[in-house]
């Protein structure tokens, strides 16, 4: 039989045709990434995050503050809808989670999320794991498995740092949706976690790979593209030197292996590929 004839026969058969379309759909649909931008905020020594709108607000009125942007990410693979970090859990004027609204805008429902991957549990990354509905705190992603590093979980509960909100953890602990992991390993064929330990002692980073596309989420080890371009050890990191070396390591590997990096606190493009040039890095926007 000629190939054209075989093709025509396949396309005439409704079952084969739908199967082929299904495969094609997944090949082109697989591995999409979305920034679920939660907004821009200022934070001072009280560790309260206050919405900051550059069009209305003036930085001079918020002396001693850091200004940050927050981008949780959504990655669709052929088998999962993955959320990477969950933001501050802020809501719109109708009481809806900004995160939920953005997931809907991307064409999904919050209950479609099957994995929530947590880099660490500081409040600007972990507060959106839960939300208050009808006066009750509950999981924001009830169908998802939440992947958290065991050491980070314990550090969060130890009460040594005010950057953690334990009332959020209580809901997750009682839910049965929590999966604690240690060190480095795989969740499934596409998703890997890697202990990094620079920003917090048990901080972890994630790789999501499928069909030659490789996404990397560095959480607060690689929060902004600019941080690849400067060498510095930051006081806000648990181990500033280690975090600095990790940034270099991730930058080199990203360039060599063509990773798409997701930058959680980026003020510009939230994704990018990296080029290594003359001993430094260049980040190209990938949006
Ligand atoms: Zn942090």
| CATH architecture verdict of the largest domain | 4-Layer Sandwich
Please trace the helix and strand order, writing H or E for each element: HHEEEEEEHEHEEEHHEEEEEHEEE
Q: In percent, how much strand structure appears in the residues?
A: 25-35%
Please tell me how large the radius of gyration is: 21 Å
Report the end-to-end length measured between terminal Cα atoms: 45 Å
* Average of the residue pLDDT scores: 89
Estimate percent helicity: 25-40%
Q: How would you describe this protein?
A:
It is a single chain. The strands form four sheets. A seven-stranded mixed beta sheet has the order 12-13-14-15-16-17-18. A six-stranded mixed beta sheet has the order 1-5-6-7-10-11. A three-stranded antiparallel beta sheet has the order 3-2-4, with no helix packed on it. Helices cover 26% and strands 28% of the residues. The mean pLDDT is 89. The longest helix has 18 residues, at 240-257. The protein has two domains: 1-30, no CATH class; 31-285, Metallo-beta-lactamase, Chain A, CATH 3.60.15. It has seven helices and 18 strands. The chain is an alpha+beta fold. The chain starts with a helix and ends with a strand. The chain binds zinc ion. Residues 120, 122, 199, 220 line the site of zinc ion (ZN). The site of zinc ion (ZN) has 4 residues, from loops.
């Amino acid at each position: 039989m000629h190939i054209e004839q075989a093709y025509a026969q396949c396309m005439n058969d409704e079952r084969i045709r739908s199967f082929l379309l299904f495969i094609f759909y997944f090949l082109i649909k697989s591995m999409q990434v979305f920034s679920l931008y939660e907004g821009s905020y200022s934070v001072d020594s009280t560790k309260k995050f206050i919405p900051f709108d550059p069009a209305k607000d003036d930085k001079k009125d918020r002396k001693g503050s850091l200004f940050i942007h927050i981008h949780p990410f959504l990655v669709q693979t052929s088998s999962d809808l993955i959320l990477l970090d969950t933001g501050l859990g802020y809501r719109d004027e109708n009481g809806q989670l900004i995160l939920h609204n953005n997931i809907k805008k991307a064409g999904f429902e919050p209950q479609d999320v099957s994995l929530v991957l947590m880099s660490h549990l500081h409040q600007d990354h972990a507060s959106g794991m839960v939300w208050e509905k009808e006066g009750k705190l509950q999981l924001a992603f009830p169908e998802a498995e939440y992947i958290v590093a065991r050491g980070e979980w314990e550090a969060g509960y130890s009460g040594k740092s005010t950057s953690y909100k334990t009332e959020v953890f209580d809901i997750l602990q009682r839910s049965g949706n929590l999966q604690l992991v240690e060190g480095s390993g795989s969740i499934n064929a596409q998703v890997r976690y890697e202990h990094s330990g620079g920003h917090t002692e048990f901080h972890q980073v994630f790789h999501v790979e499928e069909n030659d596309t490789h996404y990397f989420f560095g959480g607060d080890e690689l929060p902004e593209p600019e941080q690849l371009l400067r060498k510095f050890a930051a006081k806000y990191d648990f181990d500033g030197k280690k975090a600095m070396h990790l940034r270099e390591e991730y930058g080199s590997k990203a360039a060599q292996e063509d990773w798409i990096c997701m930058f959680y606190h980026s003020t510009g493009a939230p994704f990018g590929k990296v080029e290594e040039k003359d001993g430094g890095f260049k980040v190209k926007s990938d949006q």
